[in-house]
Specification:
111 residues; Arc Repressor Mutant, subunit A; three-stranded antiparallel sheet
Amino acid sequence: MRPLFHPQVEDVRLEAVLHALSDPVRVAIFKQIASADCAQTCQAFASVGERTIPKSSLSQHFKVLREAGLIRSERHGVEMRNVSRCGEIEGRFPGLIPAILNAHAVEAGAA
């Protein structure tokens, strides 16, 4: 099995973070992972809100979040466990993640 790519925090690009968090499904996934006390499995996100997410789409969302440097994923048997890298990203781009998540919350409340 091929190893998963996780960029070093100094290689995390602002453009990649903004792209990853430009999709409402990825934002919902990331918010849940970031607020969790423990690693979250991919299967926990089979549905986001009222939408069921196909496995192939879900895999792509996790790949984008991982390669942007927002999450760290580890294989445990057949499960993929995901944790947030918010602390690392906060060190690289202070205030960025809370600002983006707040903007999404404001937009969702205005809709």
